[in-house]
User: Fold this.
Amino acid sequence: MERQISMNPKRDLRKRRLNFENFYAYLIMALPLLIVYLIFFFIPSISSFFISFTNYNGISLDFDMVGLKNYQTMLQDQVFRASFTNTFVFTIVVSLLQNLLSLLTALGLNARIRMRGAIRTMIFAPVLINAVVTAYIWTYIFDTNGLINTLLRAVGLGGLAQTWLGNPDYALGCVIVAHVWRFIGYSALIYLANLQSISSDVLEAAEIDGAVGWKRFRYVVFPLLAPATTINIITSIAGTFKVFDIIFAMTEGGPGNATETIATYIVRNMNENLYGYAAAISIALFFIILVINVFVYGFLKKRETQV
Amino acid sequence: MKKVGKMGWKLGALLLAAVLCLGGCGAPANETDSGTEEITLKFFGWKMGAEEGNIMDIIADFEAAHEGVTVEYEAIPTSNGYDDVITSRLAAKDTADVFMGNATQTELYLEAGYIEDLSDQPWVERVNDTLIENLNQDGKMYSMPLENSGIGLFSNTNMLQELNIAIPETWGEFLDACETIKQAGKTPIVMGDKSGWSALRIYFQDIGNMAVEDPNLGYDVAEGKKKPSEALISPIEKYATLVEKGYTNGEAALGMQWNDQALTEFVGGNYGFFFGGTWLVNQMQEVNPNFQYQLSPLPVNEEGKPYAYLMTGTSLFVNKDSKYKDLAKEFLNFWAQPEYLNAYTKSQSAFTSMVGGESYEHENLKIFADAFKEGRVCTFPRGLEFADNLNQPAYKGMQMILMGQGTVEDTGKDMDEQLQKSITLKK
Assistant:
């Protein structure tokens, strides 16, 4: 029997009542996740917003509303400013480095090379390692008697040996290296999936038109990787702005405030029973991530549509 | 519409059934064979594994002495967020009848109305004077201190003997000892300052000493009557002196944890001194059983004898909302009996919290123990708990001094700012 296709599906949908077939069955399927989202994300987020206007100390429920005091203090807080600068630098450098290196990795893995499967697994493996374990691995590498200093001494460059994680000039860079190492495989996988979806017809047509090598990458492949770039940039910005675990395990935010990020500073304030203040910083972090992501997402989406 | 309504009822009924089933899981009150009501006393703490000491023996004996009483001990290590769990449970009125806590939290617990006044309990008159002074809130006791831990100066006695150095008792003697070790081509002090712990020992010891002379110091600073950059700057200056004279392991300290790499380096025998606590004795023994050392009070004093710095470790609190408050207090009384408390104190390598109590004894702790017995002790200044986050700018400033990127004045300025922030946000 031939099925009738509606000429105006929107109007049909409005006319239809919600019933078990078209709505409630799906609602039940989504319900467990919605409940989890509500309990573990939505309610805490709303309560954080409320707490940010109080002097809640994390223990007593007998707290006062303090208006914008937490936010005003935040603007004058030097450590917050330092943590914001560090987070911003961390985000920019990680996002650029991670995407550049993972793009190169994906291009390499897309070629017909031997043991491609094994190499892909190896590159993706660090993503599966817990952040704290990653931190321990890299702490050993950067240790005073660790791998880097040992190698430097072995090749006669002992003068360059450093207390890498203890030096305010290098500590943030070291943490960036560890973080990027961990996520290269993740981003590379997304780029690789996008690369493999590019039609060979397009590439052949480009080749016929004379676009080979760098030109083919610059004018054909790279623009077509726009969807993967969007996903990778957005996820790395959101992830790096909230970075906590790897930094805390490697440097605890030090030396001084050299690697203090907004997230480590939030936890530090919670440990001092300044929950209201910590909540205000969390809210500020939320809006910072939101604004930056909206801006970057808008830019990258526009780029995608231009392609 | 009718169909949806039916489904809604079904779902509602299902949900109600689930709730009733779960509700049914709650255990009803039972009675023992002799008709006594069966009570479960909930006890929440952080001691587990080797740290548990004789806690389970105390519980077993208490249960044997109280028919129908079961003590349910639940432990979460501090590293796994004990503080967060206990505060959430207290706020939700869903916590244990007895719980372990840090004595420095007493004021906050009290403000929130979570803890029971224990002033009338028989063990209170046995608590040692320093602890009474430090723990009382407006003359009342709200916790039973179980132990005192000591923090001081570990000396490599082999090295000191070789260089004919006596264990230092004043800051001047300490600097002289460091100079002699340095002249002998060794590094005098090994510090682990990745988290600023070693550097903070000088800070705590010095402000503890100051508070012995000026008991109001902590309150005056916390209330903004005295600026940290003036009243608390002496330990920062002392630390800067050690760095400037090259008596520490320098920037290597910033890559080390005090209780891991720094301790291992010290026990290796190449350093003269190390700052640490009484609880490290067993760890040192395990790492190098042949290592010869002695713990003494950290001599930051200009003259006289040094004070042993004490930290009130674990304390027990009774929940104000407990249904079994009397039984909970009885549990504390039972624990406070010398046979149990002494055994517990020794199992924690700690000093006793009670007058006449027995402490952990070890030949390598002798000098420190003597100071404790003489009552030559100091603690973190009362009142300063309010602004204990001054520790942060203090150790961060010291880290920057070590790297040559900060000064004593910068650190003082940062401490002043932190105090202002603390006053603004907490009041």
Summary: Residues 78-110 of chain A form the longest helix (33 residues). Chain A has a mean pLDDT of 89.
